[in-house]
């Protein structure tokens, strides 16, 4: 919802004031809106766009070289008045006439039409063009009734780039008509925005459902369906748009298209990228060549949750205009003044294979494992069983670990530990399958844990497993004292890495007494299982001791000065793991 | 909440795939993240940034010329692993060494530190720098413990611009340290984000409250306060940051600062502009010169509702680096290849007076009113009373009108009518005070209604009042027949403007029979009040008749083909108004 405002009635005016204050390099305020801050060459057609407030970057954010010459800015979701449009257009006019452009809504059609009449009466040659790209708002036989949504941008840009090239008014209008005729959009929504000062959203969609065929002012959609996965959403958007090609195209294969995946406000960038990944692949499969795609927020509706896909089917001329540079507050494109090696302007193609380049986050192919003794390979089986037990206990306690972590941290300890321990077990199993010794199994598990878990716990657990692996090696039989020595080194590594000491209320409070108890028990001659059992009991008691009121150290964790009432999440998970490993040792005894 | 995903565990990887597919002009994927698509000049220091996913544009969106050379991308809200960072840095390295930069979180500190060690061990000179700008996360005496939030951007950019200039590694590091030491941020939040696959947000704030001192991963703030107005929020942000200047500054007056007002995800652009309007004014009052401000989403947390303010206190060198061009997927700055008149690079100053330039949406100063007869001036008093009655009845029915409109439209009919009728009454009162006749009072009211209401209803009501004003004029006594003639002309104007006819289920269905009834009654010789009474009764019946199932016309209103059950909002408001005007006529009889 929209929360930050002063007087709701003044919202649109105050937003425009703040916008111009922040962007005076690009725009200057005039009655009714903004025009470019710099002069327009005499005789150039002025492209003046406009519409209601609440759709930023539309419309004021699209004023600047290569884009609009001015924008008339109405109240929230309301067309600017004819007088406002007239005022902006008169200020933007540079002697070449005016093209008024806007989304196809009844109010805008009326006011821009009235403004055009007034401008013409004053001797300023004026044409109008309403963008009507939303295919859900009327059938193909009534395409003149369609609303304008994110297709505003490519149509505005085509006409403005043509004006920038010095074309006369009639030709700029023809470019707008051609771009408009080849631009289609379709969207889905999950919730409407709440206007400044209102106490409820313009519309709601039941949980786990979506509205199909969004409007950017809270207009109801044309249907409702279950919430899709990102890939299903991409398929719906692409397939719907591919059903209605411009009449002169026999099919999508071999065609080029400008592609805009537009977020309406609170469907955010990472979600848009996940959807775009599939959009690009599907268009690639259909043989469509994607030109300069845009994935982001271009036409919004405050914090509405929705996403739309726009395709502009390009010919050579439209492609040139779509690729042309632009420099507006919210849309910048084109070469810097000192072109570099990445400025070659090569077309970006999408051929399915190419667009969904798999990102090799798993790292390079697993290298062969070093030679190992039979004894170490047998020990590796026990290590693998222990790592299996670790992954299981972490998985079954992940929610609890998250809740404990949320008391003083960001609540993701359980998620990270689950990712790390699962990946560690998988990497260990692969190494074991390849005949690795205990040391290599542990070091592979260490890398996988750190890679997949990320965060602090990932680094610390990576260093624990690595220290253990180094201590065990791939040749010797890992007896109890060697294991205890490895745990002692792991304890030292964690302290060095994390900078924490006993008493700081971290996992070090558990790891140090555990290591000490294990070393003492093995020094007494206890076998590994018995020694580990005793040390694990020590660990559990120590974890409970982290639950009191004292501050805890650690960089960038400033909010821990409170009574936790529960043990530290890292300490608690370590204690759980020591107990689980004991179970695995007993089984493999 | 985050709704569009496939497997939540694959979210970060799939987002990165989609991101690279959309931005191959700028970046190419490598294990662990992305690097610039183009080559870096040999010997240039490589600035490699990184952190968890979920903060776009941080971090992958900030890779490109003038900004980072590579970004290591971790899982959702988790540091990338040392191996991932190492992989990205090795790919980005161009022989000049590597500066690793990241926000100051324990996990990032660990993993980037480990990666630096590995790079150094391979002979790649490497330094690290953690941004710690969030002043709410630790006191000034513990500033090394602070978290990194939106201050990442100016600090990354300073170092990267220095690298682009060819400075050696130690000097690039010194730039990072100087920029980091002079960058402070502070934020407020209203709700946390909901991670992909999670069923609840990371944190919640009670309604009408805000958390002070936000963290970008859902870390709890340092306090809770009542929800502020936009101006109050601006004051809190500015005053908090001005309390902690760099030690070498004796006060803010005369200092220059880069200013970033950052939205966390669902505090949207218009809200940010309303807040920025006051931020700029307050900084101006304090004597701070604002340099190249940024108002938008630079470091996010999915759809978290929050906003933060960042100030980087500039010296000449830091200003040069902040102003330097950049061309990254989500941050572009600098001249196009063909500089135009708006590319002069003049500093943007903020001096209170200057930043909050009042946008003159009210239009030019009211011109003097034309001469009017005494009779017409007396009639103007009745017109004014009628407009007062109109504004009152609309105000008291605005919510009802909105609900009716929401059945088939966007629900803003009540808001628009209230804005229009209020402005019309105010303009009429001013004209009346200046001695205007009935015609001028009506035409001034007409302009104000159209300007302030916007939308379709604004245009139509503007044309109704204008037609009436023209019919009444400023000289003659407006008798019943003249009024009826004006209403008939208003009816014709509305049909011409809106393109609707009787039966289309719009206000025309009411206006036409009203005008006809009024004309018939006055032809019978009824006085105005009696004639108007009869016509208003006709209007009320006609409005009810718009509530049935037939389709209604009108451009870009495709969703009206449904049983409304309630009258059309525009028809209903017209009927209400005719009745209210009758009351005013009776009073002034």
From TrEMBL, chains A, B:
Q: Where is the DhaL domain?
A: 381-583
Molecular-function GO terms, alphabetical: kinase activity
> Which residues belong to any copy of the DhaK domain?
7-331
| SMART domains assigned | Dak2
Lineage: superkingdom = Bacteria
InterPro entries reported in the protein's UniProt record: DhaK_dom, DhaL_dom, DhaL_dom_sf, Dihydroxyacetone_Kinase
Q: Does the keyword Ribonucleoprotein apply?
A: no
Q: Where is this region: Disordered?
A: 331-373, 547-568
| Keywords attached to this entry | ATP-binding, Kinase, Nucleotide-binding, Transferase
Q: Which Gene3D superfamilies match?
A: 1.25.40.340, Dihydroxyacetone kinase, domain 1 (3.40.50.10440), Dihydroxyacetone kinase, domain 2 (3.30.1180.20)
Q: What is this protein called?
A: Dihydroxyacetone kinase family protein
- Source organism (scientific name): Streptomyces hyderabadensis
């Amino acid at each position: 919802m929209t929360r930050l405002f002063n007087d709701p009635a003044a919202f649109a005016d105050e937003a425009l004031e703040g916008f111009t204050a922040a962007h005076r390099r690009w725009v200057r305020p005039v009655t009714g809106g903004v025009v470019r801050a710099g002069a327009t060459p005499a005789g150039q057609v002025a492209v003046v766009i406009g519409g209601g407030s609440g759709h930023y970057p539309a419309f004021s954010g699209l004023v600047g070289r290569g884009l609009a010459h001015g924008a008339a800015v109405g109240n929230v979701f309301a067309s600017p008045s004819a007088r406002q449009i007239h005022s902006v257009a008169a200020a933007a006019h540079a002697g070449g006439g005016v093209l008024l452009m806007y989304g196809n809504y009844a109010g805008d059609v009326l006011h821009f039409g009235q403004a055009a009449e007034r401008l013409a009466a004053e001797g300023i040659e004026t044409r109008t063009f309403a963008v009507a790209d939303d295919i859900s708002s009327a059938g193909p036989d009534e395409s003149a009734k369609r609303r304008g949504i994110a297709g505003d941008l490519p149509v505005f840009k085509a006409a403005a780039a043509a004006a920038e090239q010095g074309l006369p008014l009639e030709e700029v209008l023809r470019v707008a008509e051609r771009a408009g005729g080849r631009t289609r959009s379709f969207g889905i929504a999950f919730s409407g925005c709440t206007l400044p000062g209102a106490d409820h959203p313009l519309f709601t969609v039941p949980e786990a459902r979506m509205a199909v065929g969004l409007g950017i002012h809270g207009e109801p959609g044309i249907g409702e369906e279950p919430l899709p996965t990102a890939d299903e959403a991409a398929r719906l958007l692409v397939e719907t748009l591919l059903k209605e090609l411009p009449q002169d195209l026999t099919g999508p294969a071999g065609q080029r298209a400008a592609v805009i995946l537009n977020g309406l406000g609170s469907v955010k960038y990472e979600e848009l990228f996940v959807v775009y990944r599939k959009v690009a692949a599907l268009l690639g499969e259909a043989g469509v060549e994607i030109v300069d795609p845009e994935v982001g927020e271009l036409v919004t509706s405050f914090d509405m949750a929705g996403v739309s896909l726009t395709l502009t089917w390009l010919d050579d001329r439209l492609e040139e205009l779509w690729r042309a540079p632009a420099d507006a507050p919210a849309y910048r494109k084109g070469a810097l003044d000192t072109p570099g090696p990445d400025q070659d302007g090569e077309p970006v193609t999408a051929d399915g294979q190419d667009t969904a380049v798999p990102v090799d986050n798993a790292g390079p192919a697993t290298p062969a494992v070093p030679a190992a003794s039979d004894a170490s390979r047998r020990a590796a089986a026990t290590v693998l069983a222990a790592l299996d037990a670790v992954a299981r206990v972490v998985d079954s306690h992940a929610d609890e670990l998250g809740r404990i972590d949320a008391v003083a941290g960001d609540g993701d300890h359980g998620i990270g530990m689950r990712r790390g321990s699962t990946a560690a077990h998988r990497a260990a199993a692969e190494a074991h399958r390849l005949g690795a010794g205990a040391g290599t199994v542990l070091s592979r598990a260490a890398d996988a844990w750190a890679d997949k878990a990320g965060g602090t716990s990932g680094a610390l657990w990576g260093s624990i497993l690595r220290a253990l692996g180094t201590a065990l090696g791939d040749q010797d039989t890992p007896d109890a004292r060697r294991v205890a020595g490895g745990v002692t080194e792991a304890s030292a590594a964690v302290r060095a890495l994390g900078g924490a000491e006993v008493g700081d209320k971290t996992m070090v409070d558990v790891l140090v007494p555990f290591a000490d108890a294990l070393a003492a028990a093995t020094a007494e001659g206890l076998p590994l299982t018995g020694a580990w059992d005793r040390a694990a009991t020590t660990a559990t008691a120590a974890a409970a001791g982290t639950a009191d009121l004292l501050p805890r150290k650690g960089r960038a964790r400033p909010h821990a000065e409170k009574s936790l009432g529960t043990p530290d999440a890292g300490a608690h998970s370590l204690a759980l793991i020591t107990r689980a490993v004991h179970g695995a040792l007993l089984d493999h005894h």
